[in-house]
Amino acid sequence: MFVGLVAAVVAAVCFGLASVFQAHGARAPVRAGEEGLLLAGRALRSGPFLLGTVLDVAGFAFSVVALRRLPLFVVQAVTNASLAVTAVAAVGLLGIRLRARDGVAVAAVVTGLVLLAAGAGREGTTSASESFRVALVLAPLVALGLTAAVARWQGAGAAVALGALAGVGFGVTSLAVRVLDTSSAGSLLTDPAMYALAIAGLGGYLSYALAMHHGSVNAVTAAGTLVEISGPSLVGILLLDDRARPGYGWLALAGFVVAIAGTLALSRFGEVRR
What we know:
By secondary structure, the protein is mainly α. The protein is built from 13 helices and no strands. The chain is globular, with a radius of gyration of 19 Å. The two termini are 33 Å apart.
């Protein structure tokens, strides 16, 4: 369990710093005659952006370790607390000023995660039925269909809906990693969870990108974060036997609620991730 907690925290730090470094790289001064794909290409090749990409990959690797060792409600809360890391790091690297309520939100995230870690138990099962695995493939496919439909809408409602669909995609990736059959290379290739992981990850990024073009960053980030955390957490408790420590369920629940409230309060830092 200790290894899983450390991995989840390191993943959150990696994701939070990655967002800031990528934003820093994308903000490089524009050269004369440079626009469109040329400008985007130079940003993608910049040192800070490449470092951010490496941190993203490292964060995903650490999150995989955590997902195989901890209840989903713990991993989802901790890794999404990367917004708190982004908020603090953005002060020095991007010159963004923290408001008083941002500081309170960061403190709430830290407090909630401490309480959550104290009340968390071991993960439930990492195995799942074939029907569960097939459902993991179908869910992101349905979400992609809904994304194509909602993308034609306009207004704040479309942004929130697309943000929530992005949360579905990212949430399914966590569930797929949790139940992935890693016993052999052959089992990976035949496991529906492997394909669910790929479809849900790409679909989540597509929905998130479209959502950012439709409306408020705060609304998109909040909707996506809420769905990404609550969905897998409930599935883990109801279907995968995730539990808190005996007698400490109230503490885990309190920490979960406080951490999520703090994370949602930091939704404006979703702009950095963009």
